[in-house]
Amino acid sequence: MKRVIDLRRCKLKRDIGESGLTLVEVLASLVILTIVFISFFAFFTQSATFTKHNKEKLSAVDIAESVVADIRHYKNISKLIEFSRNAAGEYENTTSYPGFKVKIEENNGPVDSLTKAIISVETDTDIGVKGSSFTTEMYFEEVTP
After folding, report:
1. How far apart are alpha carbons 76 and 49 in whole angstroms?
2. Domain assignment present for 55
3. Are 91 and 71 in contact (CB under 8 A)?
4. Domain assignment of residue 135, yes or no
5. Is the pLDDT at 82 greater than 80, yes or no?
6. Region 92-102 average pLDDT
7. b/e map of 49-66 (b: 16 or more CB within 10 Å)?
8. Does 79 fall in a domain?
């Protein structure tokens, strides 16, 4: 007597090895996660750059306000001890404010009694974002020493 095996009754044990993930699925999920992490990393890098730029810009505004207050107090640019006159006739200061270069350009005002001062504050650092400098103008009544 021959034994006949009914294949419908014999179930192959396929389900035992299929409970995990295949190598292709693992690699695909790693590629997707890498793309997501790279995009988040680029966002945070850009955010840090702009934060540094804004901090330098705010510091430049603060320095310019301080120089304006000094000019208003002394009523004469030449009394500002920390500034020296360069060959172009501008007053410069590169030592009092670390990381910043301050220039004051003195011009005639709209009337004879007023003097126009253009105050420029530039950063010495290069963070890849242009425009970290700040320029303001003021008019004051100059008192000669």
Report:
1. 38
2. yes
3. no
4. yes
5. yes
6. 88
7. eeeebeebbebbeebbee
8. yes
Chain segment 114-143, per-residue pLDDT in tens: 999 999 999 877 655 665 789 999 998 887
Which residue range(s) make up the domain with 41?
23-140
Is residue 139 within 8 A of residue 115, CB to CB? The reply is yes
Domain count, the chain: 1
Quick one: which of 97, 99, 95, 103 has its CA closest to 135? 103
Structure token pair of residue 31: 């590629």
3-state SS record for 17-53? CCCCCCHHHHHHHHHHHHHHHHHHHHHHHHHHHHHHH
Residue bearing tokens 């003097």 = 115
Buried b (16+ CB within 10 A) or exposed e, 13-45: eeeeeeeeeeeeeeeeeeeeeeeeeeeeeeeee
**What does the block give as tokens for 133?**
């400098």
User: Which pair of structure tokens corresponds to residue 100?
Assistant: 């910043």
3-state secondary structure (DSSP) of residue 54 = helix
Report how far residue 42's alpha carbon sits from residue 45's, in angstroms, rounded to the nearest whole number.
5
Does 2 reside within a domain?
A: no
**Which pair of structure tokens corresponds to residue 27?**
């690699």
Q: How many Å apart are CA 53 and CA 60, to the nearest integer?
A: 11
